[in-house]
Every structure is written in structure tokens, then in C-alpha cells.
Amino acid sequence: MKASKLKDKMTLHPIMTLIILIGITMVISCILSLMGIQAIQYKINPNSLEYSTDLLKVENVLSFSGLKYIFSSTVANFVAFTPLSSLIILLIGIGVMEKSGFLKTALSLLTKKMKKNTVTFLIVFISVIGSFMGDLSYVIFIPLSALVFLYGKRNPLIGIIASFAGLTCGSGLSFLITSIDSSLISTTILGAKILDPSFRFATISLIFIMFVAIITVSIAITAITEHYTVSKLDKYEIPETEIEELKTTRKETKGLLFSGIAGVIYVLFFLYQIIPNAPLGGNLLDYSQDFYIDKLFSYNSFFSNGFVFVVTMFFVILGFFYGIGAKTIKNNKDFVDTLGHSLDGTGKTLVLIFFASAFISIFRYSNIGNVLVANLTTLIINLKFTGIPLITILFFTSALSTLLVPSSISKWTIMAPVIVPTLMTSGITPEFAQVIFRFGECMTMGLTPLMAYFVIYLAMIDKYNTSEKPIPLFKSLKYQIPYSIICGGILLLILIVWYIIGLPIGINGSSIL
Questions:
Q1: Which residue, 159, 83, 126, 92, is CA-closest to 456?
Q2: Tens of pLDDT along 230-274?
Q3: Cα torsion 286, 291, 292, 298: sign
Q4: Which residues lie below 8 Å from residue 276, measured CB to CB, with a gap of 6+?
């Protein structure tokens, strides 16, 4: 009994763990800097197609300039930390839907006659394919998945863990070319032109292998969730307000009708505004871009810049019109109360996000991750592997690099200029090289607190944790390990089988030159 109490007292809250990780990062950066750890990064001039090199060094965070960076930029980094603003704004919309009763009615009806496995699969599948929305998918799907399970009378932690696994293990999987893929393609093309100046990357050249990977990973995550994760979580006591069976009255039906009509009108309006060159439409696109996905999600796109607000307003409209129809919103005070509902008790979440933003910015400043990626890239070249061994080493290099550099674009910018030509020399296409890289990322994206949206996962776990003791950061990571291992194994197997058989990876796309 005494040992158990002592263990409870020693349980670290994720906030304390982040503070410790900041200290460890500072010490390690100092040691590596004093040791002179560095790496060579190869770059390609897009005009002359000639190589140049940059020397990457580890920055000492404990130096005067490092400490100056911490004191001068921590507040600015917190304010500019995208998960912070995205979460706060979207919680307003979710709060309106929840407080008005829309979510309880809609989700209860949706899950009432569905099998548990079916609900889990749908949550996972939507999360896996949600990568086309970019990082915003973490802020939308994780909170909503928790509520789907809560109103389905199951532990909301199951929904949080399964959704996060789907989002991370599916981060590099997409039927469509995403905005991230578009940036990666540009870098891949540049690397390929070293050996083939006429190389072109077809936008649908990855669709076959992606389709198989998405379905397989979704099934695997569902199976792991139902047969492993559920048994590892403590019993969840459903709040008394959610125990009683929902009875759909005329008011609830009227509310759903009102919200449905308003929601459809809103969606149709915005869909019309993202149709290129439509009469009086297409106003939310960036026409300076070539690919449609870039027109939609480029930095200068009105749709991209306002996407969080677009989604929030959709949620507000659904909740508001449901409340009007169901008479749960009778006056402006009721409506204002719904706006702040989900923000109640978010103080600890804000502190968590503050230290997460500080940890990420300090680690990036240290440059430890980029130096590691550059050295691993050099290692791949020096090993002179071919065929399956080369595919395997690139896969695991991508997986290992993701732990310290979650940004796909940052890693591929370092790797692609030499990796793509190396694989082409071994008879592997540039398209397949990018697929290997993306599949490797999927294995470990959910295992690194350096991924900015990992803090959303931590915050939601903390919110729905009914135990008196906090769930430690590393326990939250531990929940994701089975998904990482099994999905990583599946994706590597798909790559190897595809390479051996020589199947096309998409339309006008192959694995072998």
C-alpha cells in the first residue's frame, strides 16, 4: 500500500515532464555543441541543377545567445503556436454543438444501432484519410472522437487514442495529393532531375498503393483498439447525465431538421467558393498556384487562411439552429453561454500548450534534429545498399528522423537531393522513394512530443481522465506503441511486396524504373 502511494506521488504530470525535457534538451545541446557535432546538407540549384553544401551545427542552448533566444522568443512562440489558436477557436464551435444538445442527439442516434467495431472503424478511417485537411484534422477529430465514444456510452479515452493513432499512422497516407505532398513533390522532382532532366511527377501516380495502405492501416488500428487498448484502460464511469437512454421527441427532431437545412446551405455555399473559375464563385482559391490542392491550401489561399474559422462557423450554425428548433436556445444569453461552454476549465490546457510550444521551439533552435537527419542521409549513401535493403534502411531512417524532426518538408528537403538520385541509380523510381519516406513517417509520428499537435492529444486525455492521478506523458506515448509497431510492419511489408511484384503504385506511377 505504501509503495502504491509513493508511486502515485511520483507520477509526473505531462507539464512537469515537458519542463524536464526542456532542461534535458538544453544540456544535450551544450554537450553536442562542445563536441563539435555537425553534418553536411546537400542542396540543388533549381536553375543549374548543381549541388552546393551547407554545414549544419548543433546550437548550444546554454550559451548566451541560446538563453537570449529563450527569453526573447518564448512568449512570441506561444502566441504564434498554431495548435493554441486553432484549439481555442474550434472549441467555441464544438461548445455550441455540445451545449445546445446537437452532438448528444446526433451522435447518440448515430451510434445507437451501430456495432462497437463499426463505430471505431469509422472514427479511425475518417482520421486516417483526414490528412488532406492538414494539421487542423488533429484539432477537429480528436475532441469529436472523444464525444462520439462518450455519447455512445463508452470510454472517451478509447476514441482519443484511436483517433490519434489514425491521424498519425495515416499522416503520410492520402487518396489525394495534399498541400504537404505538393511541397514534397517539388523537392522530389528537383532531386530526380539530377539524373533525368525531363522527369515529371503525375498527381495520381500514388493512388493504388495509398488505397491499399489506408484500408489496411484502418483495419489494423481498429483491431488493436478493440482487442488491446480497451483492455488496458481503467473502467470509465459514464456521467449520470449520459446514462439515461435518449428519447427523440418532436423538439429534437425539429432541431435536427433546422440544423440539417442550415448546414447543407452553408456547405454548398463554401463548396461553390472553391470551384475554380465558377461564375461568382471560386473566390477562396489562390490562382497563382498550379495544382488545385495548392490553390486550396497554399499560404496565400483565402480558404487555407480562414479554414479554422470556416469549420468553426459550420459547427456554430449546426448548434445554433438545432438549439432554435429544439428550444434549448431561447435567447441571446443562452447562445452566449454555449459559445464559452467548451472553454470552461481550459487553464491547465493553456499551461500545457505553453510548455509544449517552449519545448518544441527550444529543440528546433538547438538544430539537433536536422543534424541527425543529415548524418543519417549520408549513412544511407555510404552503405551503398540496393533493392529491398535500401528500401528498408530508408523506411527506418525516415521513422527515426521523424522522432526528432516531425516536419515532413524539413526532413525531405535535407534528404531528397541525394536520396532520390541514389534510389534512381538502384532502379527505384522517385515516386516510390517518396512513398517509402512517407510510410516511414507514419510509423513514429505518434511517438514524438515534438510533433506540435501531440499536445492536443495530451490535453484531451487529461480532460477525460477521471482518475485522481494524472496520466503521465510517457504513458500517453505507451498507448501508441502497439499502433506504431504493427502499422509500421504492415506498411513496410506493403512496400516490399509491391517492389518484388512490380505492381504500379498508381496511374502512370511504378516502383521500378
A1: 83
A2: 998 887 776 655 555 556 678 888 999 999 999 999 999 888 888
A3: negative
A4: 282, 285, 287, 292, 295
